[in-house]
Amino acid sequence: MEAPEEAIDFAGLDIRWDRRVLRPRPWTAQQSRWAAELAEDAPDGPILELCCGAGHIGLLAAQLTGRDLVQVDRDPVAASYARRNAERAGISADVRSAALRSALRPDERFGLVIADPPWLPTGTVAQYPDDPVLAVDGGADGFDMILECLDTSLRQLLPEGHLLLQVGVPQQAEQVTEWLDGHASGRAVTDVRDCRPGGLLLHVGPDDSEEGRR
Q1: DSSP secondary structure letter of residue 122
Q2: Domain assignments of the chain as residue spans, ordered by start
Q3: Pairing of the two strands 200-206 and 157-167
Q4: Domain 6-206 in CATH: superfamily?
Q5: Which H helix or E strand runs over 173?
């Protein structure tokens, strides 16, 4: 038997989901609005959203910017809801249910990427029994899916593009900075917005510092 469908008014969007999908958090509208700010000087083209869940964050960003949208989630139930939520909102969205590494063609490039990976350490997942494990389990230290989103995003981003990444705690933000220092020349965390108790939002953009240009 299917789980009963629920609904939320997400900044004016009618978003549907059920308990098999992570409940949309109202605070994440801040991520959508920041993405819309970044879109003003991002290269043209669609927005890419990774780990989209029910699709609400990317859909609001697409509505605010007028851009098309590509959304990816490994959970087919979440992808189905994202697809239906896009149709209900009248937003053009190409929703793909696949692992991140196989969902995108090598030649697909985006000026703006939104990533909402699971970031709970595996050992803490049981503290959140109402959340689907697949949607919140980020591995032993909560960084596994953050790293996968970073790697995928930077492969698909245009040189002047922007990544807006959601993490859970300051330690993970520090891990992102350290990883970029070692693996992504020319990219850096340029801004952080603390939205706790929800999470933290990191802007990863071109590194315009003197060290980043070396």
Answers
A1: G
A2: 6-206
A3: antiparallel
A4: Vaccinia Virus protein VP39 (3.40.50.150)
A5: helix 170-183
User: Can you give the pLDDT at residue 82?
Assistant: 98
Rounded-to-integer distance, Cα 135 and Cα 75, Å:
8
- Which helix (H) or strand (E) segment holds residue 50: the answer is strand 47-50
Beta pairing class for 187-194 and 157-167: unpaired
d(CA 130, CA 57): 20
Are β-strands 157-167 and 110-115 bridged in parallel, bridged antiparallel, or unpaired? parallel
163: β partners: 113, 204
- 13-27 confidence digits (pLDDT tens): 999 999 999 999 999
| Beta sheet of 47-50, edge-to-edge order | 93-97, 69-73, 47-50, 110-115, 157-167, 200-206, 187-194
Q: For 45-90, what is each residue's pLDDT tens digit?
A: 999 999 999 999 999 999 999 999 999 999 999 999 999 999 999 9
Determine the average pLDDT of the residues in 158-180.
97
CA–CA dist 115, 110 (Å, integer) = 13
Tokens of 6: 């629920």
**Residue 120 DSSP label:** B
How many Cα atoms are found within 13 Å in the side-chain-facing hemisphere of 147?
A: 12
Q: Supply the mean pLDDT for the chain.
A: 95
CB atoms within 10 A of CB 102: 10
